[in-house]
């Protein structure tokens, strides 16, 4: 019997959360191995030998080591097509990938830990908040054309897997999600689903108990 996939993850990493949601949605059991980004575990010789970028997530699956969350999501979709996260219609697939790009290319890279460390410490929250608010405003506008119950139509897609973890970061930096009613409605629906609830940052094994109790999902 093949061993369970191993996900190198960090509880507050939105990139890791995207993969956790997809694995949960598809019913794929996996072993979580936390990597502490604050203490620098991702830069250890042992970890960078597996993942030269020194980032999370890294998924070890099918005898392969796959990094970069979007590549992992696409791999899971191609090799585990049950409970799909991409629509059958090519135009809708393009819509999903466009929304994924807004989160994964236009927002998250500009407010991640590596970039924030280049900004004066007292300016970091305002900088991150501005980046996230600007990107979510674009995302909200796009939802006018694509959304049903979720980001694209009425089924969960890769776009939802990427949006919901970005909202963890948004709240952390003081973004008022009520400014984005469509996003807020989708978040409420997603957070009612077991796959999203289990992937929430407060429910990860490396999340400090105090933070988990303060920010737990209702």
From TrEMBL:
Keyword Isomerase among record annotations: yes
Gene designation per UniProt: GSTZ1
Matching Pfam families: GST_C_2, GST_N_3
Residue ranges of every copy of the GST N-terminal domain listed in the record: 3-84
Protein name according to UniProt: Glutathione S-transferase zeta-1
Source organism, top-level taxon: Eukaryota
Origin species: Coemansia javaensis
Lineage, broadest ranks: Eukaryota, Fungi, Fungi incertae sedis, Zoopagomycota, Kickxellomycotina
Enzyme Commission number, as recorded: 5.2.1.2
One function term, GO molecular function aspect: maleylacetoacetate isomerase activity
